[in-house]
C-alpha cells in the first residue's frame, strides 16, 4: 500500500477551483500551525514533532544538512493553517465540491482497500515565500490513542514500529493545490524511505491521494512571483503569533510577533487544501472504532515498546530520562529517507 498514490488533474470544475481561493479570502485571517500544545510526561519539554525537527536540522530537505540556524529553520517550516471541515462541522461555505468529491472518496477507498470510509477533516495550509516543509510522515491514529491524548511523535513511532497494526485506524489523505505557486512542489518517497524521491508541482487545481501516515513527504521551497529570486531564500521569523490576513485585491498581509510585515499576492503563496478520511477494511473494524472497543492505552504502548526494545538488545531504556527515552524510540523505529534520491 505504501507505494501507491493517485494523481488527480484537473480536480474540480474551473469555477469550483476558483471558489477554493475565495474561501481562504472569505476567512480573511490564517494563524500558524506552531503551537498545538505539548506532550504530557514523555518528552514533555520537546516539541510535538521533534522527530521531524531534529532530522530536518541535521539533514535539511535534501539530506545535505540545513544551513539555517534553528530559529530560522523553524520559521521556514511554520506555515499557516485553518480548518474548513471537522467531522460533521462545516466551518466555511462553499467547500462542498471539494469535501464531498466522489473521485477523492473513490481513490481513498481503493488505496486503502477500505469498505467503510468516514471523512474526518478538511483543512488549508498556506506557505509563504522561503518556506518549505521538512520530510515527515503525518500523525496517525490508533483505537484509544490520537493526537488529543498522546504525544504526536509517539504516535508516529508507533506506526513506523509496525507493533500496533491491529489497533491502527488507517487514514487516507488528499492534498490539492490551488493558485499555482512556481515552487512548493510536493516531494515524496512513494516506494518507501529507501526508494527514489519524486516531486509533483503544486499546479492549480491538481491533487494527490496517498497514505501520508506511511509515505515520507515534504514541500520544496516556495518561490515568490513578485519578489526578487534571492528573496525566496530569506524568510521572516514566522514564529508563533504570526498572522496572514487577506487585505483585498488578491493581496495578503503577513505580520509576525517579531514585527516583520510583508504583503504577498496569491501567486507568491503556496495554498493547499487537505482532506483526510478514516478507511476501515471491514464493518467490524469500523464498529470497534465507533464504540471504542479494544482500545490501546499509553501504559500498554510502553509495555509493548519495552518488550520489543529488549528483544532488540536495548536494555537501558528504563533508566533513561523522558526526553532521552523519546529520542531513543524515534531513533529505533523511525527510518527517515537517507536524503535526496532524485
Ligand atoms: Fe504531511
Could you characterize the architecture of this molecule?
This protein has 9 helices and 17 strands. The protein is globular and about 60 Å long. The chain has one domain (5-333): q2cbj1_9rhob like domain (Jelly Rolls), CATH 2.60.120.620. Mean pLDDT is 87; it is low at 36-41. 27% of the residues lie in helices and 25% in strands. It has 342 residues and is α+β, with helices and mostly antiparallel strands. Strands 1, 2, 3, 4, 5, 9, 12, 14, 15, 16 and 17 form an 11-stranded antiparallel beta sheet that branches. A 4-stranded antiparallel beta sheet has the order 6-13-10-11. A two-stranded antiparallel ribbon has the order 7-8. A hairpin with a 2-residue loop joins β14 (243-248) and β15 (251-255). The protein has helices at 14-27, 50-59, 70-77, 96-99, 102-112, 152-161, 283-290, 298-311, 322-333, and strands at 5-8, 29-32, 80-86, 89-90, 116-127, 133-136, 141-142, 168-169, 171-178, 186-188, 198-200, 206-210, 217-219, 243-248, 251-255, 261-265, 270-280. Fe (ii) ion binds at residues 136, 138, 212, 217. The site of fe (ii) ion has 4 residues, from loops.
